[in-house]
Amino acid sequence: MRAPAFWSRKPRLRATLLAPLGALYAFGTARRIARATPVKVDVPVISVGNISAGGTGKTPVVIALIERLTARGLSPHVISRGYGGTQIAPHRVMPDDAAERVGDEPLLLSAFAPVWVARDRAAGAQKAVAAGADCLILDDAHQNPGLAKDLSIVVIDAGVGFGNGRVIPAGPLREPIQKGLARADHVILIGTAQAQAACRARYPMLADLAQSAGALKPLAMGMPWQGLRVMAFAGIGRPEKFFQSLHDVGADICATRAFGDHAAFTPQILSRLEAEAKSLNAQLVTTEKDAVRLPMPMRRRVLTFPVRLEIADWSALDAALPGAHT
User: Fold this and answer.
1) Among candidates 265, 266, 261, 210, which has minimal Cα distance to 240?
2) What is the DSSP letter of 106?
3) How confident is the model at residue 265 (pLDDT cuts 50, 70, 90)?
4) Are residues 159 and 50 in the same domain?
5) 238 and 181, same structural domain?
6) CB atoms < 10 A from the CB of 296, how many?
7) Which residues are recorded as binding ATP (predicted)?
8) Dist. CA 214–CA 311, nearest whole Å
9) Cα 163 from Cα 157, distance rounded (Å)
10) In the beta sheet, which residues pair with residue 234?
């Protein structure tokens, strides 16, 4: 799905009319969390999630944490629900798995650490521990109460904050801001310094939480983006962030195509994209998360634009991560 435009604005008539449904959604989430009995495992558990639906930069945060923990000599495993995939029972993601089975984010993350997809996160965690994990990262689990968490990180896109402040479907929130932040131990604000300052001013309650400030930066891979004529396409939470990043590195963007988050790229869509790019004499380019959903022959013809999270000051987060005192 694509986020409706009114989700990012101050409450309008449409949001007001949908507010009762949002209240029901919030009630359901709160009741599910309150009634759960989280399972405790014998290794530290780090949850990375958000309060808004999609597009906050959660996947780059997970990658950064994997690299940070691995550098400490730990063996982190990632537990994911496998959104967009069909796998139900706990399954370790393998390089030849299809995104249709395990989901695009788990397939991408499996290049950095062992990843388990499981609708039952506790069952997935137990499999991971049995396979040698000495710490776990729960991907997109802030509203999932299945496992007891030692550190809950909420990722916020500073550029959009919490949108119109309403709960789905009236707005982008999975739960009310105060309730979501009450369960958070640490917040990572992603965006420019100006956007982060504006976000803190708009949401003064953030001052009560430990914070880290980060930015998504293109991964230097020797690719001469400057002046490269491209046609960009993406099916992520906020495709415009990807398009802006391409612009920032100097790519000559002659066309963009935005799809819904986790969109399936059918043969018809891919054929149309290739035909359009050819007519424009442009190179197709997409995100890492989108690339894993492409059939292998197509991946060889599409450039991937990887980004990584940069955090200038890791001290607050380092102190909270496993292995800080070893």
Assistant:
1) 261
2) H
3) very high
4) yes
5) no
6) 7
7) 52-59
8) 4
9) 10
10) 258
255, part of any domain: yes
- How many structural domains are present in the chain? 2
Q: In terms of residue numbers, what domain contains 47?
A: 5-216+310-320
And the tokens for 64?
Answer: 């950064």
- The β-bridge relationship of strands 45-49 and 115-117 is unpaired
Same domain, 179 and 243: no
C-alpha span between 74 and 236 (Å, rounded): 30
Confidence of residue 326 (pLDDT cuts 50, 70, 90): very low
The binding site consists of: 52-59
Please report, to the nearest 10 degrees, the dihedral formed by the alpha carbons of residues 156, 158, 160, 166 taken in order.
Answer: 40
Quick check: 277 and 301 in contact, CB under 8 A?
A: no
Do 198 and 243 reside in the same domain of the chain? no
Identify whether the C-beta of residue 75 lies closer than 8 Å to the C-beta of residue 132: yes
pLDDT of amino acid 1? 58
Distance between CA atoms of residues 293 and 108, nearest Å: 10
Q: How many residues does the chain have?
A: 326
Mean pLDDT on 143-168: 95
Binding-site positions for ATP read 52-59
CATH code of residue 30: 3.40.50
Sign of CA dihedral 285, 286, 288, 291: negative
